[in-house]
Please model this.
Amino acid sequence: MKKVLVIAPYPYLPYFSGGQKFIAQFLEYFANEVNLTVISVQENDFSLVKNYRTIPLLKKSFYRYIDLSLVKKISNEIKLNKYDVIIWEHPYYAWLAFSIRKRTGIQTIIHTHNIEHQRFRSTGRWWWPLLKLYEKWSFKKADKLFFITPEDKDFAINSWKTDPAKCIHLPFGITIKEHPSDNTSSKEAIRQQHAIAPDEKIILFNGLLRYKPNLDALKYILESINPLLLIAPSFRYKIIICGKDLPAELNALTSYTDKNIIFAGFVEDIETYFKAADIFLNPVQSGGGIKTKMVEAIAYGATVIATESGAAGLDKKVCGNKLVTVPDNDWETFAEKVLESSKTSTNTPAVYYETYYWGNIVKKIASVI
Model:
């Protein structure tokens, strides 16, 4: 069994965002295939870890990214415990990664979650061109690269001439192996909790609401999509908004309660909401990478209506009719697809679970490191 060291540069336990969830679940399943140790920040709740070793070595402040003492500390850890591979979550620590490789000779893998400069450009950060140069340099020097989407992998190969042999697809995974059997009971539980009538469709959106792409998507729902649904003849529904850190100025969406909007805030058991939902909305149009909430929504049985940008990264061939895409900014068509999809209900295809189950994904990853 290979000995693997992973550097996770920010808190991920407990997880509140899709990116945190990606790291937490990947490591949990990956530890079943390798002898795993993770170096991260002290702010994690490491009591949640059951099957790998943790070292809270990284500092809390931003200055952890320029902490020169880490070169010696991590190099010594590698030499002492004789790791075979080191995986760096994100390219932010590339300078450190290659300094340590020079000292130890360890195989060095960068696990990208987005093409980072594109994500920061889409969210208006002025320094994205500097990140682009740094990111491109890190791709060139890494021994291997893990990409969350085929599109990101293709960008690296075609635009930056990255060696295809070292580019590996590592998608966001799911924790279930088949279509759930308790959708009906979950739907009834959510109806009772939020006083939703039996003849009303349950429509869902969730995400970390301080993250600009998610907040923008919420505003598209409130200002562009829902007004069209409200005037649809005989369409009865409620839209449930789940998520942490809604800006205070939106006042818990109280001004929308008479417009079929329910704000549930952060919920501990989002899986029940996914299983209860008839339709999941994904009008995200920026941010890059794959929208992890969409992967889970389909797994738990909801039909996803997404913009083309929002659907990026998902293997559409395995989704059947559980994924419906519309052009960006075409909110009339988006609303029409919500209405059409509300009239049918089918199970998620078995091939979807074969493709996205974490247990299958990590076996492939363990075989190539």
Notes: The chain has two domains: 3-174+356-368, 183-349.
